[in-house]
Amino acid sequence: MAHDYSVQELMAVVLARDLSDGEVLRVGVAMPVVEAAVRLAHLMHGPNMELIFFGVRMNVAHLHTVPLPAFAWDRRVVRWAESYSDTGHRFDRLKDWHNHVFFVGGVQVDPYGNTNLIGVGPEYRRLHFRGPGSVGTATLSTHVGRYYIVLNSHSRRIFVERCDYISAYGWGTGGADARRRLGLPGGGPRYCLTPLGVLDFAEESKRMRLHSLHPGVSREEVQAHTGFQLVMPEQIPTTVPPTVEELHVLRTRVDPQGVLRR
Amino acid sequence: MAHDYSVQELMAVVLARDLSDGEVLRVGVAMPVVEAAVRLAHLMHGPNMELIFFGVRMNVAHLHTVPLPAFAWDRRVVRWAESYSDTGHRFDRLKDWHNHVFFVGGVQVDPYGNTNLIGVGPEYRRLHFRGPGSVGTATLSTHVGRYYIVLNSHSRRIFVERCDYISAYGWGTGGADARRRLGLPGGGPRYCLTPLGVLDFAEESKRMRLHSLHPGVSREEVQAHTGFQLVMPEQIPTTVPPTVEELHVLRTRVDPQGVLRR
Amino acid sequence: MAEQERRQRIIDEVTAASWVTDGMTIAVGAPPPMALLRQLIRRGIKELTVIDSGLSLDLLIAAGCVRKVITYYAGGGFGVPVVPSFRRAAERGEIEVWECEEGILTAGLQAAAQLLPFLPWRGGVGTSLPEVNPDLKLFSDPIRGETLLAVPAIKPDIALLHAATADAYGNVQHYGGPGWLDLFLYRAADRTIVQVERVVANEDIRRDPWATTIAGADAIVRAPYGAHPFSSRGFYVQDTAHLREYLDAATAAVQSGHTEQLTHYLNYYCREPVTHGDYLERIGVKRLLTLYEY
Amino acid sequence: MAEQERRQRIIDEVTAASWVTDGMTIAVGAPPPMALLRQLIRRGIKELTVIDSGLSLDLLIAAGCVRKVITYYAGGGFGVPVVPSFRRAAERGEIEVWECEEGILTAGLQAAAQLLPFLPWRGGVGTSLPEVNPDLKLFSDPIRGETLLAVPAIKPDIALLHAATADAYGNVQHYGGPGWLDLFLYRAADRTIVQVERVVANEDIRRDPWATTIAGADAIVRAPYGAHPFSSRGFYVQDTAHLREYLDAATAAVQSGHTEQLTHYLNYYCREPVTHGDYLERIGVKRLLTLYEY
After folding, report:
1. pTM over 0.95
2. CATH number of D13-98+156-289
3. Which ipTM did the prediction report?
């Protein structure tokens, strides 16, 4: 039934809808919602999308099922590859990345979509929490046409007034020209997706704004779990739930093992 | 007979003797003497040499014959390849080039081994003679452990007091520290080989010096064909002619078609 | 669900050549994609800036297509130290030369590919290159203060390449590695057209994804024998007699002003054949088959 | 004529590990060359600077080999956002972290490979990276005055890699492309040791020269199953149960101070086996054969 879906499935569907045919989708490690979303978009409306998992580039719109890979460094994800690039050579054609889309997580996110994977604590040499490191997010967030911040939880610990450290630059201290002033060619973060709702960035200030509320979530609940004041429009729509067809494709062709329902 | 050899054969033999086992030998376009010399050295005393022709890297010490390739961009030179690198990626490991040896020509050469492949004439936009261009010589001469200037003729037109343009830096305006002062890591030119003799560079001044005279050539003849004053030691040996064995290997295994005798 | 097909990228050589317009910067791979270059000559394209070397560069100059040349080498083979049309045009100032060198050109292309305004390079320090090409600037590096060349980004509008195979979606594979600078030209160029000896199935590409050298050409042109008179690895060797025919014609035009032979060459091989097939008919099947010999 | 043979470059894993001495900078490829890393642990190597990521990095830290880490990622898989030994050692200041990022690390390795003091990079401008890593300097480019990061050359003493095959002369080929940064580590490092699943004939290498990814490793170590418990493309998948065993042991040591499990792991799998063969005996043939399953 279409009413019976997990919040991860909802997030995957919402993300998939926002991806356009012809785009190149770069997926990093340990992001099952994103892995499902790009496959779903590819099968639903993106026959010319290219999916890149750790340098393995594929177009699999012709396949019936595209199940999730087991692990990043796994031969099994290579079976669909049309080309492969190692990490170093992945940056050989940054010029082309205005058509690329990327997805980033964060241990902290601030009101302007700057994200932190370095760690938490005032003193860098004695962090309270040492993060995993920037992966490729500094370069990717600089160059891709747009990117999405995708988070598994929504809390005041993550959404903070100021990141202790910034590993991927979003909109800096705000303003529509923040990135242009720094000479960053990419289009910056578009949405921040969480289990509570979808956030975007106000046109002028580029401050984070509540864009839609997942079914059953209130604006007060989102604000209460956010460590800074969100821009709150008068009307905030409810996130459109998955359609029957979206859920059907997701569950039968993308995620038959139900990873997103665990 | 060992007495019956061409000057190009002599040059190839002299050059081959100066190459050491274990070195990587980078050969450019249109240099038959060099092409023969590296093969001869490889077969005579260099089982660990690596020969690189336009990115095609080979070790063919185990072969009986290694005839000259027909043309630069020719599939036939690839048959012996152990690896291949296109032009762009050829510079991926310059750090390693202290063990590489290279060979350069020139339309002009000055007393300090600077060479010119750009052209002749005082005004760059209206050259009297437009040269072929620098190929890879600016980078190669900067980085290889040493290089050789190899010329098909010896004349005052080529050996000039000042090159109109410098495409490969030798010893600049002289001095053993000339290259170090510019931060150039490579060892610079070692010999200049011509049909008349072998020239080297004086230890302190790095000015060109007559090192040996090919059989039948006088020091006056060399100086008369050189457009600047050569450093002339008291004693100038005669270039040691090819041995019977050297000529035998050259003619039966390297140059069976007699390219160097035309 | 919308029924949609993945878009194919195969176009013919006439359409491909129409992507190039007067004044553009084109980058020519190795071996040169002659089917495409002959179409440019046929269409009378002018004022090009051309990144190329050797005889294909000379042909474009002889045909009047070129205003500016970015090259590191204009040797001709056959004992010809400098190709004739390039030499004369450069000496007369009819073309502008952006003087460079293999490593420097590579750095400039890589800078464009990585959206950097420049890349540093050491080769060329001490030479005349920054004097004759003022776009190359000596600078002091911000870490250790060493003197290096700053090579500005070199960005072609279109890269024109020749390769062994491609599928209909722009996945290109070479036999035995890509030519000279092909990958760097592709990375730096706004758009890339690759002519290939054979179009193959997507499954053939996926059999060895690591062999895919260009992952996403903008257009694929099917052009068997498309590099003729040059060689194409795994398919045919160069047509030496034909190259000499061109070289003799171009040399005669330059050295003694006898342009008839060159005009004939340009008309007969480049301007009159409407398609690549028409050109191959003029070469003849028997000649083409001799080029298979090892 | 002197009878001489081409020198072979095959050495065993014990000899190979002896190339590494306390305080060196080592670069670890992907998959990690575990046969070599276990030998380093066995020998009690200390004070290393390590370029690595993930669980193999964590193991080296847990074994006490590491003083400084150059890494862009220390995630663990299995839902573990940060590998445990790295996390604790970094939080306590027991190891120094040279904070970087994939593109920045690539640029630094490429600079070392090309004997350049630095390379410019745009990714990281606007972030905290140049604050937490003062070796990364913001500068104004000499051509257009844009603000970029200057990444200094990063030069490992030894790169330790795992690959599919090599011949006795150091020609290495991967199946399906080289791991993450392997080629850049090789280019930048003073010396490179590659352990391989199979040693093949020189003729096998020459069958497809373009597939030669590393043309001239300094030493080749024959190490079938040498990446275990990680996967090796074309040979075996990862041993998930074994990785979990390590991760549980390391987590227990860090979170509750129970070090017995970790000590056992290090002794049983890394310190006691004298050779790689001894290690494989402890894993057992039956377990190894299950890893072939697709």
Report:
1. yes
2. 3.40.1080.10
3. 0.96
